[in-house]
Amino acid sequence: MLKNQRGCFSGAFALAVIASLAFAPSAVGMVYFTVGGSQSRNNVPYQTYVSRAGSASIAMDLGEYFRLSYSHRQEFSNNTGYKALVTQPGYYGEYVSQTRVISNSVDFNVILFAGEIFIPYLSAGAVVKAYHSDIMTLEGREAGSFTLPPVPNLGGGVGIRLNRNFSLKLSYTVSPGVRQEPGGVQEGILDNYSQLGVTYQM
After folding, report:
1. What global pTM score does this model have?
2. Quick one: pLDDT at residue 184?
3. So what's the pLDDT on residue 14?
4. Helix (H) or strand (E) holding 39
5. DSSP 38-104
6. What top-level class would CATH report for the domain 8-41+52-73+103-128+149-201?
7. Which residues are CB-contacts of 77 (< 8 A; sequence separation ≥ 6)?
8. Does the pLDDT of residue 21 top 80, yes or no?
9. Separation in Å, CA 133 to CA 48, 130, 189
């Protein structure tokens, strides 16, 4: 299990956020609320995969071309089917695997072009991710959870205006993750997330 710890990046990012607020124009601009979600179901021999994801974020203008945002996202996966039994070679047993990933991020967004319809942007910030898993088979149950320390969160996207208050938001982000191999060996890997959401502008 990974233990929580503070990194130098989170401290530097906090200073950057404070500095951006300090030097932002006195008149704070618009506030934006975005929600998005997805669901999928896939069937393959011996297994069925069901996944759901939802997110919500709030962003605030820091001048004409800069925004500060906070995002919360949860992903659920439920896999069922049959797996070969370790204790009885040649036989299969039912299993259920449930996974939940919770992430919270703070990002600084740079607007590349404030068009009438399309608004492309780049973002950089920090994200904290927590993982929970529960696997149940005929041979037993294995559950676990861990939280990664804050890691960089980079991405970009584009907003598409629908009218004065609503717009579509397409986004893509990447952040470092951890994959653990049998025997306790861990290796770094990049997690990625893409989303289509609806934004309401106040």
Report:
1. 0.77
2. 65
3. 45
4. strand 31-44
5. EEEEEEETTEEEEEEEEEEEEEEESSSSEEEEEEEEEEEEEEEEEEE-SSSTT-EEEEEEEEEEEEE
6. mainly beta
7. 49, 50, 51, 52, 97, 98, 99, 100
8. no
9. 17, 10, 19
